[in-house]
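Entry for the shared binder. Reason: the reviewer on the internal report wants the predicted structure included alongside the sequence.
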Amino acid sequence: MTSLFDRITLLVMILCCAAGILMWLSGGLLHYFQLESYQFKGYFRTLRRQWKRIWHPLGLYALAAAVLFFPARLLSSAAPIWMALYRAAASAVILWTAFQMGRFAKALHGPQKKNFARTDRIKRLYVTCLLCWAAISAGVLCWFFAMPSWMGFLPAPAMIASAPFVVALAGLLILPVEKWINSRFLRDAGHRLMADDNLIRIGITGSYGKTSVKFILKTILEEKYNVLATPGSFNTPMGLTRIIRERLDPSCHVFIGEMGARHTRDIRDLCRLVKPTIGILTSIGPQHLDTFKTIDNIKNTKYDLIRALPRSGYAVFCDDGGLVSELYAATDKPKAIVGREGDDLWADGIKLSPEGSSFDLHIGRRQSIHCTTRLLGKYSINNILLAAACAVYLGLSPEMIGRGISRLEPVEHRLQLVSRKDGITVIDDAFNSNPSGASQALEVLSAFDGRKIIVTPGMVELGEDEDRYNYEFGRQMASCVDEAYLIGRKHTEPIRKALLDNGFDTEHIHVCDSLNEASRMLAAAGQKGDVILYENDLPDHYNEG
């Protein structure tokens, strides 16, 4: 039989190689967990979607370990020279496997579009992961001394293969602590919001447009008020809580909270925190259908904002002629609807250009003002109308509203116009994409002269109808785009098919594995006068493996 020394030597070699990369490896997986907002269902969906990047190397490691163990069994009674040669070969295999696993871990920790935020929660999760690995290692050692011969080696390779599940286990174990900590922060933020009876609290939700409306409203209201709005896309309970605790002070007159949702209770949770007195519903559409499942669930969830308003509150709706208009009609609280002639606010005389937009803003039947803005497209005007309706309710004059509109700056990565020194114009709409927004972005692109180029990975989180929406996106692209750069071969196949079905020349379709590859191709093929639309940029956990 294999000597105890040989068994211990081999086990220590394997455990040392594993231990050297376990926490590094776990860090990349924790990043995926963070990108999915610490939601277990989303994390496991990412594990399935990224199976090549995750499970392929893990399986490779397990296979290499198995190749080591069985020769050890066969050589158990061989001459010492053969065992020495075996240990040397085993060391080489282990070092090679460790190198491959290091490459795997490096890929998980490589350049990221959204950096890994080493928050206090992540630090607690790291410690919990470490404790889990320590417990697993102790179990491996106990198994090693309890089981005979080669069977004692079997749990060692399983340690690496279990890494994704250990991260999930750590998240589950720490969950009660996180809930307790979050509840303390939430209570403190709620107390701060309610400490000033005169503070105006505004909630904004919708399938899309809420971030743009938030920044537009903030700019307009600053003509009269001191306004605190959540930055970027802070739209979760803990995101709002952080901003309230860090930035809300007695000088603030208005707090604007963007309210995002991926699950049916999300808006209710946010409303319990903010207790809004004004609510703005921007849109209802097929966004996050992978978690909501149906449009009705989205509709009911978004309307939770209006339900949460007090009887004396105020609700603003976009007249979309569909679901939002239906909810407006069903609301019996003070309200306004905007977008079409005859509504509480609407725009006409609209002139769109690559430099921005101009229009006449009508406030009811009696007041109007001519407005100009650097924002692009009709969709931006609809967002302005929603913000203007809220501003009217809060006592701003038409002149104040007009000045605020003239000061609007494009929101980063949302139809943001960028002129480059090489004569190429970029329309940056990379933050997110949805069927309505993508259509609007193509309309904006159509207004430009020059060769029109689109760079896109398509749309995600649209549930079972995702391929249908991407096919329609491709059909619209075919009529207004000269060159199409599609990111991700599998995911963009419906777009490619739609382009070809609508007569698009296959030579002008460029399918790339990554945004970096598309950027290199564009750097070589770009010409002065080109207009490039970047429509959507998927986060790292959507990259095709």
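Summary line for the report: Residues 73 and 150 are 6 Å apart (CA to CA).
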